[in-house]
Fold this sequence. Notes:
By secondary structure, this protein is mostly helical. The protein is built from eight helices and no strands. The C terminus is likely disordered.
Amino acid sequence: MSDTLVQIVRRVLLPVALLFGLMVLLGMLVTRVLARTWPFTVEDAVNRELAADRTGGWNDVSLVFSTLASTQMIVVVTVLVALALRLWLKRWREPLFLCAAVTAQALVFLLTTLVIDRRRPAVEHMDVSPPTSSFPSGHTSAAVALYVGIAVLMALRARGTGAKVAWWSLLLVVPLGVALTRMYRGMHHPSDVVASFLNGGACVAIMARAVLDRGLRWGRAKLPTALRPAVPAGN
């Protein structure tokens, strides 16, 4: 058991803690140290330009993407995809990876907002402002962790470069759309969503290393049968 705990600390807890520290450092740089330095000095202008270009059609599109990354939708999609993966692959490795990545980004996001206090852009807000800091964007972090996580799993199962590229292209549309629409709707600064890509992407990488690494043995015991990779017939 002690060996397993060491693996959890080394591969999950420590990397997530370091990511949290990095996010806090970035938040302090953006909101304090470099707040009056380019490119952060033009962020307000970007938000004003996006607000000035709002139209009825784009408002509807932005609402769709924003809803796709709402807390309720992220939870529902994560659970449904995890269950589908379990039924399809007959093991827990992939569902655990996806759930862990989404959970980790949420934890880092929430802790970061407790330390970094940043006001939302000085434009009309199209959504009700949640009580958290503007830095980073929770919607964007969650969308990156979920849809990039799914893209990783689908690309690993895909045969051929074309199929891999197709999966990545299809699933990256959602987090990119969420990032743009959160700025369009006046809820986040550009640096908020850029930091969120780091948060979500790093959590996917951390959990991929911890859960999807087929050569990993937690402690001295082998992984349970349900977590072991299938061995092709004839090998």
